[in-house]
Amino acid sequence: MKPHYGCCHPIQCILPPHVVDAIKMRGDADQRKMAEALAKQATEIREEREEATPPDSFMGAPVLAMGVAPAVSREVYDGGRRASLPGTLVRSEGEDPVDDPVVNQVYDLTGDVYNLYLDVYRRNSLDGQGLLIVSTVHHRRRYNNAFWNGSQMAYGDGDGTLFQTFVEASVVGHELSHGVVQYSGGLAYKDQAGALNESFADVFGSLSKQYALRQTAAEADWLIGQGILGPDVHGLALRSMKAPGTAYEDTVLGKDPQPYHMDFYLNTSSDNGGVHINSGIPNHAFYLLSQYLGGYAWEKAGQIWYDTMQVINNPLATFNNWADKTVEVARERFGARSMEVAFTRRAWKLVGVDL
Ligand SMILES: [Zn+2]
Question: How much distance in Å is there from the Cα of 12 to the middle of ligand 1?
Fold first, then answer.
């Protein structure tokens, strides 16, 4: 049995601490108050999350059971703009759409993420065993965040100024992919392992959207949270895998701090060692590999990243450990002299990760 790191599982929110800190510093009085509350709530949810039990042991990639047709299983709850979870059940699996479009959006986007993992990687839900996916919409009042708390998703509506929604394809895919990491042996949410955890969530968040829209690597926007920023904010999204560091530049939110190369790696004690910042480096490596390979990014680049998560079995993996493993799994799947292996090496080299 491998050790697990249940003691230090933090909450995985879409809104990184550096954005909350920027609002605390630069926002108006209301926004500063909101940011203080967000920071406080993050601590409370972190405590809840610590109680959620991670899997005791990791047995490798889950395989589909023979003779049993895998099927998605969803429940969407209305949080009633209150803090308690999950709230009131408003739509279960197979039921018709309801009047609230936000409920239907979450239901559909959750299905898109499920379909990516099942169709492409033969994984039946987050745990590989058909786990029921529980989501709560309208969580708290004017709440500027979305999170996976270890057992369910919750989405705020946004305050309408800085953020207009948190129900967006790459955000849903990002948060649910934290569940996949959790059930795949996990990556500690700290330093480089934490940045790899964040990056895996971004990669598969973006791939969920690309797969639903059937976009090629060249057509995709490679943005995380496109369209969630409010009307007054100067920016496109929370993060850009194509050009880390350029997603937003705003008087209140500050500037996107993500590096795209090891030369700009940020050594910091905040944000669990910069997990939402340094994730720009592996994000960009994935983007580069996808561009080199062309076509649909989920087919080859996504398969390499997915396989790596299933076999690395190292919750404290560094960027180097992860990069080495991507080359190894590419070699196994595509052959030692394949262009997939050559391009994987080249992508890591271009972001300054030595192999
Ligand atoms: Zn995250």
Answer: 5
Give 278 Cα–ligand 1 centroid separation in angstroms. Answer: 13
Tens of pLDDT, residue by residue over 8-59, are 345 678 888 899 999 998 999 989 998 988 888 776 666 655 544 444 445 5
As for how many domains the chain has, the answer is 2
How many C-alpha atoms does 335 have within 13 Å on its Cβ side?
3
CATH number, domain with residue 346: 1.10.390.10
Q: How far is CA 117 from CA 34, 52, 61, 130, in A?
A: 36, 23, 12, 11
Task: Give the largest Cα separation in the chain, rounded.
Answer: 59
Q: Which residues are catalytic?
A: 175, 276
pLDDT by residue (tens digit) across 230-280? Answer: 999 999 999 999 999 999 999 999 999 999 999 999 999 999 999 999 999
Domain's final residue, options 116, 149, 182: 182
Alpha helices per DSSP H over the chain: 17-26, 29-51, 101-115, 121, 169-182, 191-213, 271-274, 280-293, 301-311, 319-334, 339-350
15 C-alpha to center of ligand 1: Å? 8
Residues 167 and 224 in one domain: no
Query: Encoding tokens for residue 81?
Result: 């703009």
Q: Does 23 map to a domain?
A: yes
Nearest to 109 by CA among 208, 225, 228, 239: 208
Residue 257 structural domain: 191-350
- Expressed in angstroms and rounded, the spacing between residue 13 Cα and the centre of ligand 1 is 5
